[in-house]
Design a protein that fits this description.
The protein has helices at residues 25-42, 71-82, 101-110, 112-115, 122-127, 141-154, 157-162, 164-187; strands at residues 85-90, 93-98. It has eight helices and two strands. A hairpin with a 2-residue loop joins strand 1 (85-90) and strand 2 (93-98). 50% of the residues lie in helices and 6% in strands. The chain is mainly alpha-helical. The longest helix has 24 residues, at 164-187. A two-stranded antiparallel ribbon has the order 1-2. Among the domains are: 12-42, no CATH class; 49-116, no CATH class; 157-188. Belongs to the cytochrome P450 family.
């Protein structure tokens, strides 16, 4: 067994205060960092928001791995296991899942403004003039005005009837196209 002399560690330039290992700048910095992290982590004021249960998730895809070929069955299984309200991460997007009709009715009546906004998507902001279209506008006076104008001007009974011939013509074109493709597939 060899015993090595560690005189180079006890030089006064490394340990300016008293020469002990506890007073080295590295150890003091490390202790200060650990104390700060521990203080911030454990003494942080908790918010009053109590999140619903969250099934185990993977780092990048979140809970997408738990959705099978039939998502309605997977969501039913998850709701039986975690309750009628749960939080899912679909990719990086947190999604609140409510599977009880009574709770959905209560949310629709009492919390409608809080749940009526759509997520802000960067691509929509860039391509659609700052999310000013009917499908991406944030909830407010502007979105209500757009929807009211759309229903009264574009989807009125008179307008819908005026485009009836266009719809019938498009349906006829698609029927012909499908007949041609099915005839080709039968002859192969």
């Amino acid at each position: 067994m060899a015993i090595f002399q560690l005189e180079f560690l006890t030089q006064s330039s490394w340990f300016p205060i008293g020469g002990g290992i506890l007073f080295s700048p590295f150890v003091l910095s490390l202790l200060l960092l650990l104390f700060t992290i521990g203080f911030l982590k454990f003494n942080r004021r908790r918010s009053h928001w109590n999140p619903p249960p969250l099934p185990p998730k993977l780092p990048i895809i979140g809970n997408l791995h738990q959705l099978s070929r039939f998502p309605h069955r997977s969501l039913h299984f998850l709701s039986n296991k975690y309750g009628s309200i749960m939080l899912l991460k679909l990719g990086q997007v947190p999604t609140l899942l409510i599977s009880s009709s009574e709770i959905v009715e209560e949310v629709a009546k009492n919390q409608d403004i809080g749940f009526s906004n759509r997520p802000s998507i960067t691509a929509a902001r860039i391509m659609l003039c700052g999310c000013s279209t009917m499908g991406f506008a944030p909830y407010g006076e502007y979105s209500r005005t757009i929807k009211k104008n759309c229903v009264s001007e574009l989807l009125s009974q008179k307008k819908v009837q005026s485009f009836r011939f266009v719809r019938e013509e498009e349906v006829t074109c698609y029927e012909c196209l499908y007949r041609q493709r099915s005839y080709r597939n039968q002859n192969k």
